[in-house]
Amino acid sequence: MDSTATIPNGSAATGDDLSNRPPPPLQYRVSAKCSVTKARVGVMSVRHADVDTPVFMPVGTQGTLKGVLPEQLLSLDCRIMLGNTYHLGMRPGTTVLEKAGGLHRFMGWPRALLTDSGGFQMVSLLQLAEITEQGVRFQSPYDGSECMLTPERSMEIQNAIGADIMMQLDDVVKTTTTGPRVEEAMDRTIRWLDRSIGAHGRDDEQSIFPIVQGGLQPDLRRVCAAELTKRNTRGFAVGGLSGGESKDEFWRTVHLCTDLLPEDKPRYLMGVGFAADLVVCVALGIDMFDCVFPTRTARFGCALTRAGQINLKQRTFAQDMRPIEDDCECSTCRSYTRAYLHHIVTVEPVACSIVSVHNVAFQLRLMSDMRDAIREDRFPAFVKSYMSVRFPDDTVPQWIRDALAAVNVHL
């Protein structure tokens, strides 16, 4: 047997050389699988943390989670959070980030970080953007200046940020888009992946995830996944969803993509954060989620519970001396009542922080409960119990029934 092996840069190395190489900056191991659905539990080890999956990742767009301190996230045992490449590249910029030694040190966050590529701003800031094969030309929302975000520039910013996981720059279109633009975006995403890989300067410290695109067209999703999985990356993302498509189209696309992606690498569904969606998509085989929803809805005075979202501004809570959730052990539920929060939400700035802590704790606890249920092979029972509380009186939406039935859970 040949004692040489090909390593990623194409050169040959002996077995001794390979054994002396440091481990890759991301290692993933599946430790338990549901015997009925596609749900699984894993450990994703990166430089700054061991992250148990399935995991929900809070979003700190500008290098800060709005209303929540890093110390508070640590107390909730949050292992990974997000930063936004587009906004961080604009402010404070790569010069400051490099001088600070990366975003971990700059914001005082010792655990794992994931950065998006800036591609989503093609949709959210479309009126400020022009998309070409070279990249995306933006008008800055801060000072009106013009700048170009290319796959290479996105990698440069993300290398300066130093996140453990980076996303390729992808060509993003609204999920409701039809016609040739969808295929054009999918093809360009593949080409931009190769440019991103070529520009990645810290592969021994940071891992890049490709993004499966293709809109709501199964054939395009299949083509994209087949091409992306030819590249030896350490994980994969499913993008271009949760943007206005029907829930039926949403779950079917997720179900298809998890069938197409490797079982031995983490699968990240971008921009999904409603609790019921998390439960369904874990059953469909997703490992990682992110969304601004928990903190954004807190700023409007809304708190998350197993029975659904409650609006603390409503007068019904004015004399309610219960915590947001009776069985929640977060600092908010230990210290404050619904009545107290009713009188300060959307009025006092501190209320945003108090409710945000609970909402993030709720999301993290939901994921922990699902991991426990999968490990103990009682996940289908967990799903049925969760849905009975969230949708009492047999009001479970049909799309949830159909999605779960596709993985053998019948409500």
From TrEMBL:
<feature type="active site" description="Nucleophile">
    <location>
        <position position="290"/>
    </location>
</feature>
<feature type="region of interest" description="RNA binding; important for wobble base 34 recognition">
    <location>
        <begin position="295"/>
        <end position="299"/>
    </location>
</feature>
<feature type="region of interest" description="Disordered">
    <location>
        <begin position="1"/>
        <end position="25"/>
    </location>
</feature>
<keyword id="KW-0328">Glycosyltransferase</keyword>
<feature type="active site" description="Proton acceptor">
    <location>
        <position position="116"/>
    </location>
</feature>
<keyword id="KW-0808">Transferase</keyword>
<keyword id="KW-0479">Metal-binding</keyword>
<feature type="compositionally biased region" description="Polar residues">
    <location>
        <begin position="1"/>
        <end position="12"/>
    </location>
</feature>
<feature type="domain" description="tRNA-guanine(15) transglycosylase-like">
    <location>
        <begin position="37"/>
        <end position="388"/>
    </location>
</feature>
<keyword id="KW-0963">Cytoplasm</keyword>
<dbReference type="InterPro" id="IPR002616">
    <property type="entry name" value="tRNA_ribo_trans-like"/>
</dbReference>
<dbReference type="Pfam" id="PF01702">
    <property type="entry name" value="TGT"/>
</dbReference>
<comment type="function">
    <text>Catalytic subunit of the queuine tRNA-ribosyltransferase (TGT) that catalyzes the base-exchange of a guanine (G) residue with queuine (Q) at position 34 (anticodon wobble position) in tRNAs with GU(N) anticodons (tRNA-Asp, -Asn, -His and -Tyr), resulting in the hypermodified nucleoside queuosine (7-(((4,5-cis-dihydroxy-2-cyclopenten-1-yl)amino)methyl)-7-deazaguanosine). Catalysis occurs through a double-displacement mechanism. The nucleophile active site attacks the C1' of nucleotide 34 to detach the guanine base from the RNA, forming a covalent enzyme-RNA intermediate.</text>
</comment>
<feature type="binding site">
    <location>
        <begin position="116"/>
        <end position="120"/>
    </location>
    <ligand>
        <name>substrate</name>
    </ligand>
</feature>
<feature type="binding site">
    <location>
        <position position="170"/>
    </location>
    <ligand>
        <name>substrate</name>
    </ligand>
</feature>
<dbReference type="GO" id="GO:0005829">
    <property type="term" value="C:cytosol"/>
</dbReference>
<protein>
    <recommendedName>
        <fullName>Queuine tRNA-ribosyltransferase catalytic subunit 1</fullName>
        <ecNumber>2.4.2.64</ecNumber>
    </recommendedName>
</protein>
<feature type="binding site">
    <location>
        <position position="328"/>
    </location>
    <ligand>
        <name>Zn(2+)</name>
    </ligand>
</feature>
<dbReference type="InterPro" id="IPR036511">
    <property type="entry name" value="TGT-like_sf"/>
</dbReference>
<feature type="binding site">
    <location>
        <position position="240"/>
    </location>
    <ligand>
        <name>substrate</name>
    </ligand>
</feature>
<keyword id="KW-0819">tRNA processing</keyword>
<dbReference type="InterPro" id="IPR004803">
    <property type="entry name" value="TGT"/>
</dbReference>
<feature type="binding site">
    <location>
        <position position="333"/>
    </location>
    <ligand>
        <name>Zn(2+)</name>
    </ligand>
</feature>
<feature type="binding site">
    <location>
        <position position="358"/>
    </location>
    <ligand>
        <name>Zn(2+)</name>
    </ligand>
</feature>
<comment type="similarity">
    <text>Belongs to the queuine tRNA-ribosyltransferase family.</text>
</comment>
<feature type="binding site">
    <location>
        <position position="330"/>
    </location>
    <ligand>
        <name>Zn(2+)</name>
    </ligand>
</feature>
<keyword id="KW-0862">Zinc</keyword>
<dbReference type="GO" id="GO:0046872">
    <property type="term" value="F:metal ion binding"/>
</dbReference>
<feature type="region of interest" description="RNA binding">
    <location>
        <begin position="271"/>
        <end position="277"/>
    </location>
</feature>
<comment type="subunit">
    <text>Heterodimer of a catalytic subunit and an accessory subunit.</text>
</comment>
<feature type="binding site">
    <location>
        <position position="213"/>
    </location>
    <ligand>
        <name>substrate</name>
    </ligand>
</feature>
<dbReference type="GO" id="GO:0008479">
    <property type="term" value="F:tRNA-guanosine(34) queuine transglycosylase activity"/>
</dbReference>
<dbReference type="GO" id="GO:0006400">
    <property type="term" value="P:tRNA modification"/>
</dbReference>
